[in-house]
Amino acid sequence: MAKIPRGREMVRKLLRIGFVLNRQHGSHCVMKNATGETIVVPVHAGRELKIGLFRSIFSQIGVSEEEFWEI
Asked: pLDDT value at position 2?
């Protein structure tokens, strides 16, 4: 298992995959893709994502962990 990204890094990688920033409410970015799927990413300064949320995002976007780090 590689390191776990921070929220801002996750947002950048989702933007490269094709998601767009739909809105932001406080420290939570709501990302949407062309099919209408929505993912909420918490962006707390200096804190990594929790492992469960990290894996949940993978299952939602359909990308393996290895593919994610190559993006």
From this structure: 61
Bin 64: left if φ > 0, else alpha if -120 < ψ < 50, else beta: beta
Measured in Å, how far apart are the chain's first and last C-alpha atoms? Answer: 16
Domain ranges of the chain: 7-70
Distance of CA 63 to the CA centre of its chain: 11
CATH top class, domain 7-70: alpha beta
What is the pTM (predicted TM-score) of this model?
0.85
Which residues of the chain have a pLDDT value below 70? 1-2
Q: Look up residue 36 and give its amino acid.
A: G
